[in-house]
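Record passed on underneath.
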Amino acid sequence: QVQLGESGGGLVQAGGSLRLSCAASGGTFRSVAMGWFRQAPGKEREFVAAISRGGGSTSYADSVKGRFTISRDNAKNTGYLQMNSLKPEDTAVYYCALIRNLSPSTWSREGQYDYWGQGTQVTVSS
């Protein structure tokens, strides 16, 4: 059974940076694509970014393009989300997830993901 664990969340001032990590165990991390989603209070969970199994292809929500960078290290079974120029509206619980469907057209769809982490809180103060 695949297990995912996020870390790196916290409280940061607007304009600051955070790096989230997602450690995977119990499966073949390198054979699946990975995504990050977030859920703000009172809102639905939304897509943030995704990366192909080899790391050569990425996708971002418009709201984070140019500020966030998704990456992965398959040797360490770990994915990352580097978040720069953070805004108060980035405040949310951030989740990593793995998707066996390798078609990029599915990566923004929450229901397509097969495994989820428990989430890590990111709070951006103004």
In short: The chain has a mean pLDDT of 96. The chain is about 0% helix and 50% strand. The CA atoms of residues 69 and 82 lie 5 Å apart. The longest strand covers residues 18-25.
